[in-house]
Write a structure and sequence with these properties.
The protein is an alpha+beta fold. 34% of the residues lie in helices and 22% in strands. It is built from 5 helices and 5 strands, in the order H-E-H-E-H-E-E-H-H-E. The two termini are 28 Å apart. The relative contact order is 0.23.
Length: 158
Amino acid sequence: MDRHRHPSVKAICEGYFNRNNQPAHHVESWHFCDNEQDANECLSLVLAGIKKATSPSLWWYQANKFELPKVGDLNVVTDWAGVAGCIIKTINVDIVPFNEIDATYASLEGEGDKSLDYWRRVHWDYYHRELANTDFSPTKSMPIICEEFEVVYRLGDV
């Protein structure tokens, strides 16, 4: 089964829109990271209220011709297998050079020990993987999309 078409994605969208007395419609679904362990851990951190931001590179969006996130966007966050965990709403978007990300933002990401050193180390490695099949190569000044979000619905919320 295509993990982006898991029945839980439709169910969580229906639950969210029914609760808000709005017509149900499809919401984009995705998982964090590029491997199962990190994707599932990040979802757990979001559900626990610890992870409140994500940081793909602007170049990855450009290479894939994806629309940039904007305030008010809704997304379904899934685990690696595509099972919906929650719906998040984007509350802030900034584009910041990699080398200008600060400790406050790194802490919002909620990963590891929440330090800037940890954020820089794991994200630097990630951006190399993220950009591997593109015309871009990571640089210390590359633009990073700093997207902050809040959980607005979890599967099973009433």
